[in-house]
Amino acid sequence: MRTPTVTTQTHRIDGHTVSAHVVEAPLDHAAPDGPRIEVFAREFVRDGGEDRPRLLFLQGGPGHRSPRPDLVGGWLDRALEDHRVVLLDQRGTGLSSPVNASTLGHLTPAEQAAHLGCFRADAIVADAEVLRAALGGDPWSLLGQSFGGFVATCYLSRAPHGLREVYVTAGLPGLRTSADDVYRATYRQTLRRNEEFFARYPGDLAVTAAVSAHLDGEVELLPTGERLSSRRFRQLGTHLGATSRFDALHLLLEEPFTTVRGTRRLREEFLLDVGPVLSFAGAPLYAALHESIYAQGAATHWSAQRVRAEFDEFALDAGGEFRFTGEHVYPWQFEEDPALRWLREAAELLAARTDWPALYDPEALAHNEVPLAAAVYVEDMFVPYEFSAATARAVRGARTYVTNEHHHDGLRLDGSALLDKLIALRRR
């Protein structure tokens, strides 16, 4: 295969050389002569570390761009002690041929669905291999956070020859679990986090119930112009999965109401604060692909929506106590969120697709020879502990740091210490 060509621009920041790399890759790696996309990555090299091996960082998601650090700190600072660090904008995000209404809105729903079907973990692995070849071809280390860990596990299955070692935080996926399996587990953990939240802030139970009832009876508009529904308000519960946002949810709820000419209304400040949390304007790919990242050989048929019906606590008309939902995507969001309406029909086609290829190879992982060290969080609301633990047992040579000290955002909050633990674990 011809070595891919890379275009690079560099600048300096805080004792580091920063290089912006761009390579071309096939939209569909199974059809290399078909349409092409650009893949972007930003590389940090600490002064004196020019000869260090590369470490590829894979961001959580799907559909979120890689970090844009303006200061070198946290896990990045620790990684640069031993590596050159490459921050990959996974296909469809950031500067890697982005997916949005401007780029795909002109296509038919069937064409959109076919295009989006090329944006799962297997394609990201193939892109990374194109980039690795373009940068010289040496095997690199890998750090995957959340969905980045899913991609890392796929990488170990499909292209282990490209890897020196793998670190994963909050992201070991179930190898054979379905979307239904995952959502049953995450709904249970979301209920537990609701209980912890309302135990800490018991007054917020009445506040959330009042806001929900108000939204069922009154029209309140978000800054983007659409009506805020009570079911969409419940999705603020995504905050419950992160230590850094758990208490921030309480602050959002401190004073949601005001009185305007004798009528009770939601404060403009409240609507301004919750709007960006609930909007998928910055990551439509996340909403479109969230269920398909679990699909292997079967359709998801809107799994989060179906499985939710098994939990009376989340019923809108249950008459019980208010409960937030979590990291779940529902078909009605593609109508209620203006940023997703252009994707509504394509999302239906993706939910009905039955021929999703397998992402992981249990046989290859059982004979794995690449060192793997993973941080697994017992109380993770987004990546169920029981599936991560089973995968760790199934991957030959995997070592785990199991803890309830962190929730899903452990790498962001304590990244230097966490990565240091994993490096020590891998080297021990």
Keywords:
single chain, 428 residues, alpha/beta, Rossmann fold, 2 domains, nine-stranded mixed sheet, two-stranded antiparallel sheet
Would you kindly provide a written description of the structure presented here, covering whatever features stand out?
With 428 residues, the protein is an alpha/beta fold. The chain is 38% helix and 17% strand. It is built from 17 helices and 11 strands. The strands form 2 sheets. It has a 9-stranded mixed sheet, sandwiched between helices. Strands 8-9 form a two-stranded antiparallel sheet. It is globular and about 70 Å long.
Summarize the structure.
By secondary structure, the chain is of the alpha/beta class. It is built from 17 helices and 11 strands.
Task: Walk me through the topology.
Layout: E1 6-13, E2 16-26, E3 36-46, E4 54-58, H1 74-79, E5 84-89, H2 101-104, H3 109-116, H4 121-134, E6 140-145, H5 147-158, E7 163-169, H6 179-200, H7 203-217, H8 230-233, H9 243-252, E8 257-260, E9 263-266, H10 268-278, H11 284-289, H12 303-308, H13 333-336, H14 344-352, H15 362-366, E10 372-377, H16 385-394, E11 398-403, H17 410-427
Parallel strand pairs: 4-5, 4-6, 6-7, 7-10, 10-11
Antiparallel strand pairs: 1-2, 2-3, 3-5, 8-9
